[in-house]
Amino acid sequence: MKLNPFEKLKKSLVRTKDNLLGKISQTVRRRKIDDDLLDDIEEILIEADVGVKATTRLIESLKEKAREQKLTEGEDLIALLKDDISAILAREDSTLFAENDSKPVIWLIVGVNGVGKTTTIGKLATRFSSEGQKVMIAACDTFRAAAIEQVAIWAERSNVDIVKSQSGSDPAAVAFDAAKAAMAREVDLLLVDTAGRLHTKSNLMEELKKIKRVVLKAVPGAAIHTKLIIDGSTGQNAISQVQVFAEAVDCDGIIVTKLDGTAKGGVMIAVAEELGVPVDFIGLGEGIEDLQRFDSRQFAEALFA
Length: 305
Ligand SMILES: Nc1nc2c(ncn2[C@@H]2O[C@H](COP(=O)(O)OP(=O)(O)O)[C@@H](O)[C@H]2O)c(=O)[nH]1
Ligand SMILES: [Mg+2]
Description:
2 domains, alpha/beta, binds magnesium ion, binds guanosine-5'-diphosphate, Four Helix Bundle (Hemerythrin (Met), subunit A), 8 strands
């Protein structure tokens, strides 16, 4: 049976919810609000990948509001916590396309190996082409033949054009050709798949910068957006990846994958608190349909449902 998107989101977040609010609800039961209880909640938040910064903010806020509202029962904290988490998540809502973006809009899809870049490109291509946009894919992960093959399969499934070359060829050259082709064919959105070898290697960052430069040469004034893909199931590790990439390339959107089935989805709260980059989409599975626009209100509702 096919679930509606909200049901799907709820189901994906079950383990995260258990790990976060499930544990907190149990902890506050029949206890009074005191420092001990707040310490216990703090520990649960940290263990649920919410991150130190957001956790500290949440605990401070609980203390302050409990005092202001003269609350005494531990269970009263749940409603406060839900409000505060929703408020943090709300910072992540994004707009996808600026009205003055010239066509083709170009999305560089970047991120560490294995986080789900290529899969996400397949999902994005399917989604936008079904919405009537003309989409093209550039296979710029030329590092391995298998990577080119993989993205070609996604292009075929989503029925969009692809520009590719042999493995080992210069990724920037492929990007240049793709950008030129996208312009000639009046493409609306060009999705550029990139390699994700270790983010500690400065050559990867240099390569990404070069791709950007070259694309701008091919399509002067192009609207180039860099979308960073992170793997939500790695929890706090995902955060440090963002920081490394953000230093090298200007990311204007984040896509968090693999939120299905993980208990580490609390990382979304850390992403919102610490990164200041909006979340465009979330990945909820390996299938072509398993991508949802991030909507903080829905996300919070699914988390607290
Ligand atoms: N469960 C789950 N798996 C995903 C998701 N996105 C990608 N994957 C899987 O993650 C693995 C790596 O994906 P891939 O797109 O090749 O990553 P890349 O190296 O960044 O291009 C594949 O097995 C995908 O099926 C997701 O949202 N949920
Ligand atoms: Mg890939």
